[in-house]
Each structure stands twice: as C-alpha cells, then as structure tokens.
Design a protein that fits this description.
2 domains, Serine Threonine Protein Phosphatase 5, Tetratricopeptide repeat, 5 strands, 302 residues, alpha+beta, Beta-Lactamase, five-stranded antiparallel β-sheet
C-alpha cells in the first residue's frame, strides 16, 4: 500500500491537473489516512468538479469518517453527473440501509447489481433478509450491513478528463515536480549530516521535495507533511494578532530535535530538522541553505 501511495503521489506531482488524485485519495483512505485523503480529494475536485468518480471517492472518505450525511450528498452529486454510476448507487444503498430505509436500499442496490459489481449481491442479500424478517414478525432485524469498504478500489484514469464548463473559482498555485526521484534528493547536499532532514511541503500538507526519516531510517515524509498542513496560515494569523508583521522563521527546540521552519514560494513551507546536539546557529544556516535550494528549484519547475 505504501508503494502504491508513493507511486501515485509521484504521478500527481508530475501532473497536478491529472485525474490520478482519485486513486491516490482512495488508496490513502484504504490505508486509514483519512485526513490526507480528504485534502487530496477536495483539491482534485476544485479542478474537476464535474467528474462523478471524484465525488464517489470523496463520499467514501466521508463514509469511513462516519459522516453519512456528507457521504450521501457526494453520492447524490455523482448520480446527478452520471445517472448510471453504479458505485454511487451502491453507496447510497449502504446509507439507506444504515438509516433503516430498506425499500430504498433494495432499489438502489438492485440498480447497482445490474453493473455486476463485486459485493453488491452480498449487500443485496442482507437487505432482502432484513426486509423478509421485518415483514415476517413486524420487527426490523439488523444483519451485518453492507460495507462501503467492500466497494472496489477506484481505478487509475486512462483517459484525460472531459472538457468542463468554465466556472469562476480561485486559482490555486500548482508546483509540478517533473522528476520526483530527484526532488526527494533536493536538499541532500545542503545538509551536513545523516541526522538532518529537510522537507518542502505545500499548503495542503503534500510533499513537494525532500525527505524526512525517523530514527529507524524509514521515510515518514508524508506523515510529517500532513501534520504540517496549515502551519503557515496559523503562524500568519498569530503574527497578525500580535501586530508583529509577516513571519519569516520559526525555531523549536524539542527533547529529541531542533526544528526550524520558514515560508517558501507559492504558499509552501520549508522544514529543517536536526539532532538536539546541533547548535541552533547551524540549524538556522541549514534552513537558509535549503531555502535557497527550494527557491531555485521552484523557479525552474513552476
């Protein structure tokens, strides 16, 4: 799963306007990274609001978060865009079942069953068993509910998105990374030791460049990046309330590391971390080096 997420993330970095955000968001959902999956899906939908499959992905994320109202809204939107969307019918059948609307659930699952989708027959059998139990003794029996997790993964897009109507919306700066392998090594020569990390993160908490390894040597950049989403906006808000002007850097001395952050071009955030024994002055110097490298790289690829 981690390899799949990494590959899809690299594909999206190469072409931020592609539909690969859908299988990426779904893979993140299946891996339990629901907050990151939500950000990826919402960002993709901002570019592709008329793609039914994208609303289906977002609905699945809402369902896994336990928000059936939002899930139902997204599946309804998918059906408005594509009345034959079998997975949306299956999802709404799941929601109807959980709400106790068994007749509606049967109609929707029967419609989804026409598409010969995996899991539909089992879900439909559960609903019909509940209907039979209710009609037999006047009480509603609640067998194992059809599960949205049993829906097949979202397939990777093979065709470019269809033309969409022009709508007025805020432009979101995109930062392509045409060579993700090189982007991962962007800050290697700007750092001085193996216990140092540098990571460039966009405003949505997605990795743009660099790596972040834990003490075992595992690259945890995606997890760290997700946790850093919104840091720049929070820092800006704090500086505004304090009347201190724009923020330029932030340095944190923790038990295990010294971490420095600074805003970077196009709304991104640069983070440099080093061992606790590293002098603070050196960490600041490393941050300046990495920021220069990030600016040059962004100027080339944007």
């Amino acid at each position: 799963m981690a390899d799949e997420i990494r590959r899809l993330s690299d594909d999206l970095a190469r072409d931020p306007s592609s539909l690969v955000f859908m299988p990426l968001a779904d893979a993140l959902r299946r891996a339990g990274q629901l907050d990151v999956a939500m950000r990826v899906a919402l960002r993709g939908l901002d570019r592709h609001p008329y793609v039914a499959d994208a609303h289906d992905v977002l609905a699945r994320i809402h369902a896994d978060r336990g928000d059936l109202e939002q899930a139902a809204d997204e599946w309804e939107m998918a059906l408005r865009l594509d009345p034959t969307h079998a997975q949306a019918s299956l999802g709404l059948g799941f929601v109807d079942f959980r709400r106790g609307n068994l007749e509606s659930a049967e109609r929707r699952l029967s419609a989804a069953g026409d598409a010969d989708m995996p899991g539909v027959a089992t879900a439909l059998a559960h609903v019909r068993a509940a209907l039979g139990s209710r009609s037999g003794n006047g009480a509603t029996h609640d067998p194992v509910a059809p599960n949205v997790a049993s829906m097949p993964p979202v397939a990777e897009p093979r065709m470019p998105p269809p033309p969409m109507p022009e709508i007025a919306r805020l432009a979101i700066p995109e930062i392509p990374a045409p060579q993700p392998a090189r982007a991962k090594q962007l800050f290697t020569t700007a750092l001085d030791g193996a216990e140092q990390n540098a990571l460039l993160v966009d405003a949505d908490g997605l990795v743009l460049a660099g790596m972040y390894t834990d003490p075992t040597g595992t690259d945890v950049a995606e997890v760290v990046a997700a946790e850093l989403a919104g840091v720049s906006s929070e820092a800006e808000r704090a500086m505004r309330h304090l009347g201190l002007g724009a923020w330029t850097s932030l340095l944190v001395e923790a038990d295990e590391a010294v971490v420095a952050m600074t805003p970077a071009p196009l709304g991104s955030l640069l983070v440099v971390a080093s061992s606790r024994e590293t002098p603070v002055g050196l960490v600041r110097l490393l941050l300046d080096r990495a920021l220069t490298r990030a600016r040059d790289w962004l100027a080339r690829v944007s």
